[in-house]
Amino acid sequence: MPERLGVVFVHGFLSSSATWSPMLRLIETDADLGLVDPHTFEYPSPPVSLNPLRRIPDINDIADSLRTYLTHLCGGHSGIVLVTHSQGGLVVQRMLARTLAAGRGPELARIRRIVLFACPNSGSDLALLLRRGGLWRHPQERELRPFDQAISDAHRIVVNQIIHATAVTAATCPISVVAYAGERDGVVTPVSARSVFPEVGVLPGDHFSIIKPDSHGQRSYVALKRHLKEALSMTEVPAPRPSGERLAPTTRSARVTAAAYRALVDRLLAVPRMAEPAFREQVYDLLPPVIVHQLRRDTAARVELFSLVRSFEHYRHLAPGHSLASALETLVPDHPTVADVIDALYGAGLYDPGDDRGGRLQDELT
To answer: Which residue among 50, 195, 245, 269 is least crowded, i.e. fewest CB within 10 A of its CB?
Structure first.
């Protein structure tokens, strides 16, 4: 029996699931999408709450609610696509980031694609002075302001540990994300909507009409239909990599492949606290100084760590792989992710358990 695809639509700020009605009507009357099961995720986003016994949820609350919804109400689907409008894209990104932070990356493996319509990845400055200076206090509105730290942190995790991931691990899960901007959107600029996502586009319409196509031939519907059909054609969902799985080693003289570097960075990112700059500084303090000098500092952990491990190849004589392994074993003792990193170092030809040069060099440095 053909597999059915669950498609979950997530609305935006001050909106409701009713905003998806035009899109849902077209899907229901499209014979090509007969295997698609649409679902709408509803969350409270009223302008104000007049009931003293009720509060308006913030984005963390909504993200956790979405994760619960996907687990219990969409648990029957082995493949899922998430489609969002405006703030809904921030909710999904926060859900992804919080799931990875909890070490539950495999829970995300059945998400085959994420489609963002007019998502304010960098915030929205529409009427910003009035929003900041008025009496209105809304927990969701505060995070829609430009350069909100929580939004930026979640976005960075999605880029580093979702889009550029190569394996399903506790802290990574590769998922395709496509971001669309509205060509006449005065609420979320195209720069904010596209952000740094590698797969982007611009569609006709303003902030609201972009998700309200009036025919099967309208461009926003055509774009979404293409992504749904591609998701339907995916027959395999990436399987989680078992902890402790050995990687085939390269020879010590061979050039380390880009795939080996990516696998090593994936496993480094799974180490507890590795996304924290202060923790990485502790790790770097235990590496040969010349290695650390090669780093070009960046706020994104993945880019920084990739720069770090790329420099290892040029300084093999200093046994940097041994130093890194020793640093992690000291700072995060007995954690399985550290064993995974050491295994990746071994697979990249940057670590030999029978070679004690790293220990000798560390003694000389200290």
So the answer is: 50
